[in-house]
Structure formats: C-alpha cells, structure tokens
Amino acid sequence: MLERLCPYIGRPAVSEKRSSLTANGNVRCGLKTSYRGGTTHVIFEPLDSIA
Fold it and tell me: Which parts of the chain register pLDDT below 50?
C-alpha cells in the first residue's frame, strides 16, 4: 500500500509544464480542462500561489 502512495506524495501540486510567469510577475496556471465559461488559465499573485 505504501508503494502506491509514495508517487502521489512526491509529485508537485501544480504541473510545471502548465505554469509560467506573466510579464508583471504573476503566476499563470493552465487548466487541464477548461471551465464551462471557456476559462483556460488562472492567474495568481506569487504569494497566493504558495498559500
């Protein structure tokens, strides 16, 4: 059981491939699937993304 749990604990919460920094220093995180309204990315301030 522990062998199956370890890979999930070791992975990051957000994919590094889908996250990037914007020109003004905010964190842009791409969603795996878009929201119903068509939203494909979420933008956070750096401290918000850590919390």
Answer: none
The pTM of this model reads 0.63
Contact 27, 46 (CB under 8 A): yes
Give the total number of structural domains in the chain: 1
Q: Identify whether 6 is part of a domain.
A: no
Q: How many CA atoms lie within 13 A of 2 on its CB side?
A: 0
14-25 pLDDT tens trace: 777 888 999 999
Per the structure, the complete domain to which residue 20 belongs is given by: 14-50
Tally of CB atoms within 10 A around 30: 14
